[in-house]
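Might you be able to consider the sequence and fold that I enclose below?
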Amino acid sequence: EMIRWLYEASRAGVKVQLLVRGICCLKAGVPGLSEHITALSIVDRYLEHARVYVFANGGNPKTFLSSADWMTRNLDRRVEVAWPLTSPKLTSEIMHFLHLQLADNTKARILDAMQHNYYQHSDKDTNQVQSQKDFYQFLKDKTN
């Protein structure tokens, strides 16, 4: 049902960017169905998978953290919580992390309609971004 809602949003012109840790049944980039949806999967050294939801909200973004992902078991059979992130400082850090993940051109795989799962690579002249390594360095620098 969640996939159906995402397809409906895409057909209405809503841009949807998904960062998926594991399996993804949604087919991103299908014309007329999910052409406004992109999906990336990053599997690297750390078992890291945040539950962050950002809604553009007509230019007034709303950011939420959650105890669960959108798997059926969490949506239909458990009590889970999502709460708004209201601290501008924390929101800024979370957005920094999301942008790092979206820019990852080392470990990110594009989950396309054919489910080829190609690595998202960039030109040799482009800076290499490995989001988990960059997260680690950011947090290490912050604590020193």
Notes: The mean pLDDT is 87. The beta strands are 16-20, 37-42, 52-55, 62-66, 82-84, 108-110, 118-119. The chain has four helices and seven strands. Helices lie at 2-11, 72-76, 88-103, 131-143.
